[in-house]
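Quick one, probably user error.
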């Protein structure tokens, strides 16, 4: 494999049709040029989660006070996980770290005429947690999102779900992570990559963690967009590239270097919106999303949107359509989904990293779309789920192939991928947009 480059596919579920933001498998095109003998070491297994007895819980932070969430987590670790929570990291077998955010998305009341200060706040949030061993070894990580039908405070819900998942993984012994111990060497290795913004937050975290373990290896990644990353790879400017869009047979055959796909990340593309007064999660059918992006549904109170959102006061306002202006694997996921649910979209626009948009204004990268929607009233766009969470944006529930409205989360994402595994090819190229299954 010394002469090959590995094109890692992100199995990305497309937003929208399968679950509320239906998902498509990301085949993150991670074209990794493996340098002969460049990264070698003696395999060594890290401490197993099942052996964890004492844990230190670091301060949860992400620009917000999450003390209540941390305290609830500590309580549940002691009560349900039967772990000893110590006050000094030096006394612990491992450290639990967390970052996240909690925000208000609206208010609700049984009396629609009740004043705002008499209504109950509706919260949304997330917690990204990881457990680090004594030698800075990553033992376990999990992104916690709220349950759909919670009854108590969101801090209680997030903490309980986090600890429940940890208990499950400790029981199933799935938390152990294989870590490579660096062999003695004097030569530093540098790997350069570029591509999709979709998986960038996770890639950067991975590379940072690996560098802590092996300071002789430097992995750099430029989140320049799928198309630009693949162009750099084709010109031998980088060692690997990442994209939600797998290369075609033609592209693979024309490459001067053998490229290999492998999946690295599973994620979701979701429809995000900024609509004043829409305090509940909006519901979208595939036909509605296609109609909006075709320019045929122009108002938020269009009958097609009202039909799926009967309990929401949709404004008589023009819909501001926002799309990617750069070559994007996320755009491929979005347009491939629309091509599956709308024959008109398939014949008039099609699916690709760059398309001729019928309507709308453009923005670069997932972050650019997120910011544009956040700053523009009555707008709609599409981004990877984590960008919606980090920007505290509303994202809709999408009607899936089974006819149910599902909102993107870890469970629906996993179900989307699971139902599509039978179609997986030997080189991992597969689409899970509009996947089958109730969830």
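Nope, works fine. Designed sequence:
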């Amino acid at each position: 494999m010394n002469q090959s480059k590995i094109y890692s596919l992100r199995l990305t579920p497309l937003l929208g049709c399968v679950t509320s933001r239906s998902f498509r498998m990301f085949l993150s095109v991670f074209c990794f040029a493996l340098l002969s003998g460049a990264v070698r070491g003696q395999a060594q297994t890290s401490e197993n989660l099942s052996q964890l007895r004492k844990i230190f819980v670091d301060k949860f932070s992400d620009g917000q006070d999450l003390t209540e969430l941390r305290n609830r987590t500590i309580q549940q670790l002691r009560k349900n996980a039967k772990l000893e929570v110590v006050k000094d990291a030096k006394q612990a077998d491992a450290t639990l770290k967390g970052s996240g955010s909690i925000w208000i998305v609206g208010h609700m009341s049984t009396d629609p005429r009740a004043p705002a200060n008499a209504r109950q706040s509706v919260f949304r949030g997330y917690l990204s947690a990881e457990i680090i061993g004594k030698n800075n070894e990553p033992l376990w990580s999990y992104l916690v999102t709220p349950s759909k039908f919670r009854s108590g405070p969101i801090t209680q819900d997030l903490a309980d779900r986090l600890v429940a998942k940890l208990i499950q993984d400790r029981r199933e012994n799935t938390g152990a992570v294989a870590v490579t111990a660096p062999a003695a060497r004097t030569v530093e290795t540098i790997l350069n990559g570029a591509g999709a913004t979709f998986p960038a937050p996770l890639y950067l975290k991975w590379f940072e963690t690996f560098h802590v373990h092996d300071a002789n290896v430097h992995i750099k990644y430029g989140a320049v967009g799928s198309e630009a990353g693949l162009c750099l790879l084709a010109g031998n400017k980088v060692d690997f590239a990442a994209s939600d869009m797998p290369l075609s047979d033609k592209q693979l055959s024309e490459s001067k270097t053998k490229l290999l796909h492998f999946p690295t990340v599973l994620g979701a593309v979701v429809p995000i919106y900024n609509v004043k007064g829409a305090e509940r999660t909006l519901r979208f059918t595939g036909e509605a999303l296609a109609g909006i992006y075709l320019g045929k549904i122009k108002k938020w109170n269009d009958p097609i949107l009202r039909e799926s959102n009967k309990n929401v006061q949709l404004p008589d306002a023009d819909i501001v359509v926002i799309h990617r202006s750069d070559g994007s694997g996320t755009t491929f996921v979005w347009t491939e989904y629309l091509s599956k649910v709308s024959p008109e979209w398939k014949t008039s626009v099609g699916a690709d990293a760059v398309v001729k948009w019928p309507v709308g204004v453009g923005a670069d990268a997932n972050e650019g779309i997120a910011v544009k929607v956040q700053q523009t009233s009555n707008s709609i766009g599409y981004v990877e789920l984590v960008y919606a969470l980090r920007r505290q944006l509303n994202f809709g529930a999408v009607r899936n192939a089974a006819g149910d409205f599902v909102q993107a989360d870890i469970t629906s994402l996993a179900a989307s991928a699971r139902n599509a595994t039978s179609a997986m090819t030997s080189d991992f190229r597969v689409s899970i947009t509009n996947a089958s299954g109730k969830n």
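Residues 1-46, 175-185 have pLDDT under 50 and may be disordered.
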